[in-house]
């Protein structure tokens, strides 16, 4: 996500890349283009001097992980807000819906934003636009809605992120061990906020969230970009985070995820390629919206990451006009009023 944000900020109309902060001394002094795979130098070099970088910017795209270091991420974001920088980030899942976040985080970050005159937006793709704004838009096209499903259907065989795939998701691990992502309450921590966000966007108060998980082993060993995954280890899982109103399922986030296309052949597959995000509205009409993002030379995951970064960076012009505080994916308007000369820069030749 750091590399993606560098690429996007260097190209996004109305934005200028002024600094890149790194925690690795061996990366300090290198041009930002090195990390983002850009053909031309940006003239901006990475630094470990946080104060110097914050002194020369109006906003921060915070792309450091918050999965296994949430307290550190909150501290970093608080520091940026107090310094007067508007912050956009995908790093803290519970803040995707601030009403679902730990109250002490919300209090700290709200006070920091007020002290610095700054704003905070936390969002991504899933959780993020794939199961907040897109779902609410889809529901607006239907009547007499029974339920809404937001699905991510992905084959991780080309996604070269060993920690996320093997440790967080548990692919290649023993079926007798439950991986981090599938431990009870963790799915709700990640996606529960978006379930509530959809409910709020549609005038419903989600009063109960439950989880369902089914896992499948590999029936044969398979080879991927991360190496071999052995027969009998975890090869697929179907995760559901279910939001209920008065006992009825209303909003469901599904993840149907494989390490190889051969596993769980009776489960849904993406329409094409290795991955889709879908919103399915069971209503009148029965509506399915399928979205995918392809990045030339990259994987579908790279494309999805780019949409997440672009949504965050694209919200900055709106955030700069708002009162200090924390905002979510339903607060940001779909159409923002950029100056015509800035908006025109988005159109490629």
TrEMBL record:
Domain 2,4-diaminopentanoate dehydrogenase C-terminal residue range list: 132-337
Span of the signal peptide: none
Pfam families linked to this entry: DAP_DH_C
Protein name per Swiss-Prot or TrEMBL: Dihydrodipicolinate reductase
Native source species: Mycolicibacterium moriokaense
Classification lineage: Bacteria, Bacillati, Actinomycetota, Actinomycetes, Mycobacteriales
């Amino acid at each position: 996500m750091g590399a993606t944000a560098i690429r996007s900020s260097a190209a996004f109309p109305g934005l200028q890349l002024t600094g890149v902060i790194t925690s690795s001394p061996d990366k300090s002094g290198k041009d930002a283009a090195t990390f983002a795979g850009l053909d031309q130098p940006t003239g901006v070099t990475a630094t470990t001097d946080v104060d110097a970088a914050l002194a020369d910017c109006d906003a921060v795209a915070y792309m450091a992980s918050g999965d296994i270091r949430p307290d550190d991420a909150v501290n970093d974001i608080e520091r940026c807000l107090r310094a007067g920088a508007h912050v956009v980030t995908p790093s803290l899942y519970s803040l995707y819906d601030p009403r679902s976040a730990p109250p002490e985080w919300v209090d700290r970050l709200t006070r920091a934003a007020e002290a610095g005159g700054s704003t905070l937006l936390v969002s991504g793709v899933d959780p993020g636009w794939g199961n907040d704004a897109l779902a609410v838009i889809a529901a607006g096209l239907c009547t007499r809605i029974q339920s809404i499903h937001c699905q991510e259907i992905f084959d991780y065989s080309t996604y070269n992120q060993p920690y996320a795939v093997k440790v967080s998701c548990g692919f290649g691990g023993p079926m007798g061990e439950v991986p981090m992502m599938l431990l009870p309450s963790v799915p709700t921590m990640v996606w529960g906020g978006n379930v509530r966000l959809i409910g709020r966007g549609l005038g419903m108060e989600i009063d109960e969230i439950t989880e369902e998980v089914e896992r499948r082993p590999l029936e044969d060993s398979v080879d991927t970009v991360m190496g071999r995954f052995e027969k009998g280890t975890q090869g697929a899982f179907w995760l559901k985070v279910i939001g209920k109103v008065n006992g009825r399922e209303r909003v469901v986030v599904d993840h149907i995820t494989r390490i190889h296309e051969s596993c769980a052949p009776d489960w849904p597959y993406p329409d094409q390629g290795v991955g889709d995000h879908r919103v399915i509205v069971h209503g009148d009409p029965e509506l399915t919206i399928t979205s995918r993002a392809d990045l030339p030379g990259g994987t579908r995951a790279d494309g999805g990451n780019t949409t997440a970064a672009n949504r965050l960076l694209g919200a900055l012009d709106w955030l700069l006009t708002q009162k200090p505080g924390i905002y979510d994916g339903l607060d940001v308007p779909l159409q923002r009023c950029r100056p015509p000369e800035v908006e025109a820069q988005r159109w490629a030749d």
